Prior knowledge:
Elements: E1 4-9, E2 14-20, E3 22-27, E4 30-34, E5 41-54, E6 57-71, E7 74-79, E8 82-84, H1 90-105, H2 114-139
Parallel strand pairs: 1-7
Antiparallel strand pairs: 1-2, 3-4, 3-5, 5-6, 6-7, 6-8
Amino acid sequence: MPKLKVEVVTAERIVYSAEADIVIAPGIEGQLGILPHHAPLMTMLRPGELIIRRGQEEDIMAVSGGFLEVRPDRVVILADAAERAEEIDVARAEAARKRAEEKLKARHAAGIDEAQAEAALRRAIARLTVVEKAKQRRKR
Length: 140
């Protein structure tokens, strides 16, 4: 069965590099499922969970936006930030979520950038969702 070479790269490091059967990514228009021999594509990513399946195994990561490039045999994700579930500091992600929610509640206060607060909330929620899904997967 054909495989995809998948690379997840940030400015700091290569987060992931392996072969996979399918990649499910958070595109700006909705989730994208990429299989081998997919048509070439380039799109922006929104904050969310990135799922990479290899047979029965699944790697889940939180991405905070970036770009996804698809070639027939390769998927390259250039992420603003990407973290594997086991790398996420839950307390820090929860604190970021609370800060963003507080800023959005006070959105009419001077100096609050609503778009920036909403983006921070989406990033924090993505990180917490990835951690929760990883916990559920370990229970099985």
